[in-house]
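User: Predict the complex.
Assistant: Input components as received:
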Amino acid sequence: METEITKLLGIKYPIFQGGMAWIAESTLAAAVSDAGGVGIIAGGSAPIDYLREQIRRAKSLTDKPFGVNIMLMSPNAEDLAQLVIDENVPVITTGAGNPGKFMEAWNNAGIKVIPVVPSVALAKRMERSGAAAVIAEGTESGGHIGENTTMCLVPQVVDAVSIPVIAAGGIADGRGIAASFMLGAQGVQVGTRFLAAEECQIHPTYKQLVIDAKDTDSIVTGRTTGHPCRNVKTKFSKKLASGEMNGTITPDEFEQITLGSLRKAVQDGNLEEGSFLCGAIAGMVNKIEPAKDMIEEMFAQAEKLLNR
Ligand code: TUI
């Protein structure tokens, strides 16, 4: 499965694991990298010492390349941006903003920078700033999302830039991978399926919610705040979404209620106050298994389809 992405990074399979805040840590990232993809450790809003420890732990678990995701809305983004340079991290993905101000320093450090983009305009800017590739992420994704769908966004980004494009949003099996290649992508990013990886350290309640989810079980909250987020439908997320719609929860109140809600979901499995982020493809994720088995199965299926 050689593509521009496998050649760029010296990896076996052109698959990135999503940089899921509070979720994507060294055990999962090392498992994905070891299996031949690119595991990602999420910087999220973590303190610098935590991320340093995670990076060093991943290095001790795998000799394959792995990356770090810098979430640009994090108050720590500046510190984490320097840390990845100091720790010689080979690949950076970014999310939830424009990483323009960090690009020069990262490129000077020889890091392959691969920003998540929700639009053609940002993809073009990232190419001009020296991005090695871009991840075109559709609104099917879990967590913080843009407006356009994977099916519509990926080919438009492919047409607009000369760097390789990685498709993200709604991909959880070989059909999604094959379809992404048909749209012109050179690789894929998968988040939701890896929530069910054996190596994924989320609370068992979170894993079970994803396994049990059906096609209609994701919901977008936070539209009134300007930071829409896709979650598993729970009593809590439904209450938030309806409160926003009918005006009983103001944007300020929404921010207050959801403060710390990612941690409450991931670490505590707290159904009353946790935000269980997931993509719209969660309905197709039905089994807990090692990340390696997921990756090998997905690419065996994709190759079969593409050879048809
Ligand atoms: O970043 C993500 N997904 C995330 S981040 C996150 S933590 C968070 N929690 C609550 C509110 C906000 C963040 C949970 N999930 N995916 C990548 C992604 N990036 N999706 C959309 C974007 C994006 C949006 C706007 C990237 C760039 C952008 O640029 C705007 C600009 O400044 O041009």
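The chain has a mean pLDDT of 98.
Let me know if you want any component modeled separately.
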